Amino acid sequence: MLLTITTTQSPATDLGYLLHKHPDRFQTFNLSFGQAHVFYPDASIERCTACLMLDVDPVGMVRRKKHGQPALLAHYVNDRPYVASSFLSVAISQVFGTAMGGRCKDRPELVNSPIPLTAQIDSLPVRGGGGEDLLHRLFEPLGYRVEATRHPLDPLFPEGGESPYFSVRLAASKPLSELLTHLYVLIPVFDNEKHYFVGEDEMEKLLVKGTGWLTAHPEKDQISRRYLKHRSSLYRQALARLAEVEETAVDADDEASRDKAENILEQPLSLNEQRHGVVLAALRASGARSVLDLGCGEGKLLRQLLDERQFERIVGMDVSVQALQRAVQRLGYDRLPPKQRERIELIHGSLIYRDKRLAGFDAAAVVEVIEHLDPPRLAALERVLFEYSRPKTVVLTTPNREYNVMWETLPAGQFRHPDHRFEWTRQEFHAWGLKIAEQHGYKVRFLPIGPLDEKLGAPTQMGVFERD
137-141, 186-190, 244-248, 273-277: lowest mean pLDDT where? Predict the structure, then answer.
C-alpha cells in the first residue's frame, strides 16, 4: 500500500520540513499492525515527492489476538496489506501526526499557506456502492481535482468484471495539514470498514478532524455513517452535534458585531470587566486547582485565569470554532512559555451533550451562557453540568431582565443580545438555582454584579453552587 504526496512549490524540499521527515533518509516506524516506511524518490528544488509505504502483517495480527478468539482464514487471507484502509489512517496519524496537526518549528510560515499538492493513493477500495462517482462527491467539494482509474478483478479474465479498487490522484492548492486531515477521515469512509472497535472516542475524532469542513460538506451524512461503521446511535449523535455547530457557527464578523453592540450598551458600566472580576474572585475563594470555562468564547476569562498561579489546569470549551480560533490569538497560545501552555487547553464541544472530558474538575465557570439556550437545551446543560461533570463549585452568571429599563438605548421588551433566548428576573433565577441545587446536592448563594439599584437590582446576577 503506497501513498505519495508531491509538491512543486519552490523550494519543494520544504515538504520535508512540513512532514518532519528528512528527504535524504529512509525511515521505518513500527506500528501495532506492521511497519510504515517513509522515503523520497524525488527531492529537488522544483519537485519533491514523499512516499508512505505500509507493510501490514496480517499473520502477526492474528497471532496477537486475545486467547480464545478463533483465527479464521479471512484473518490471514485478505486485502488489508495491499489497499488504503483504516490502517493507513492510523499510519498517517502516527507517522505524520505533527504535520496533520499543523505544527512546524522550522517553517512556521508554511503551515497555513496553501501550496500545490498532489496525492496518489494505490489502491483505494470503494465499497458499499457509489464507485467512481463517490470519489468525486466526497473529494470535489473540498476543492480537489480527482482522477480515478478502476482496476479489473483479473486482467487475464476481463469477463470477471471490475473490482472495487481504484488508483486515485488528487490535486489541489491547500495547506498540507488539510490534505492529511481529509485523507485521515475519508480513506476508511471509502473502505466502509475499520480494523478496530468504533465507540464514542471515534465520534469525537470525527468531530475534531471534521472541524471547519465537515459541517458544510454535502455528503456529511454519508461520511459520518460510514466513518462510524453504521453504528446508528453514534451516527445520530454525530449528526446532531454537526447540526448544532452549523446552527451556531454564524459568520464571525456578524457575531462580532452583535457582541460589540452588547458591549457598547454595557460599556458605561464596564460590566464585562466587573463580571470577570467577580467570577475570578469566586473561583479563587473556592480553592480550585482545575477550572473549566464553559462557553469560553474569545478567551477573555481564560486570559485572566492563566495569570493566576492557583489554577494548575485550565480548559476552555466552546461550540464555535471561530471563537476558539480567536481565543488562541487572544491568548497568544503559540508564544506562551512551555509551562504556561501545559496549563491550558482549548476544546471544541457542546454543553448539551455528556462529555467525559469535562469530568474531574474542581470548578466550572459558566459566564453569560445559559440565556443563549432554548429551554430544552437548557435542561440538557443542567444534566451535563450538575449531574455528569459535577465540579465541586459552579460559578454561573446571567443578565437580570429587570435592569434593562436602565438603558435608554434599549427598546422596551428587547433583550440585550439578539441571540438571547430568554432573560430572567431575579425571582426566576433564584427559583431555578434553588431547584438545581436541591436536585443535584449543591448549596447555592446569589450575588449581584454591577451597580446596584434599590428596586431593580444589579445588571448581572450570579449563582455560586457548591457541594461537599
Answer: 244-248
Q: How far apart are CA 38 and CA 430, in angstroms?
A: 62
Q: Which CATH class is domain 252-466?
A: alpha beta
Q: Where in the chain is the domain with CATH 3.30.1610.20?
A: 2-196
Query: Cβ contacts of residue 397 below 8 Å, gap of 6+?
Result: 275, 279, 366, 367, 368, 449, 460, 461, 462, 463
Residue extent(s) of CATH 3.40.50.150 domains in the chain: 252-466
> At residue 262, does pLDDT exceed 60?
no
Rounded Cα distance between 19 and 16, Å, is 5
Give domain 2-196's CATH architecture: 2-Layer Sandwich (3.30)
Is a pLDDT exceeding 90 seen at residue 433?
yes
Q: In what order do the strands lie in the sheet with 344-348?
A: 344-348, 313-318, 290-294, 363-367, 393-399, 460-466, 443-449
DSSP string, 240-263: HHHHHHHHH---HHHHHHHHHHHH
User: Is 465 in contact with 366 (CB distance < 8 Å)?
Assistant: no
455: Cβ contacts below 8 Å, ≥ 6 apart: none
Measured from the Cβ of residue 124, the count of other Cβ atoms closer than 10 Å reads 23
**DSSP 8-state code for residue 389:** I
pLDDT category, 265, cuts 50, 70, 90?
A: very low
Tell me the pTM: 0.54
Question: How many other CB atoms are found less than 10 A from the CB of residue 136?
Answer: 15
Q: What are phi and psi of 379, to 5 degrees?
A: -60, -40
Q: Over the stretch 6-36, which tens digit does the pLDDT of each residue have? A: 999 999 999 999 999 999 999 999 988 889 9
8 A C-beta contact, residue 95 and residue 101: no
For residues 171 and 119, give the distance between their C-alpha atoms in angstroms, rounded to a whole number.
7
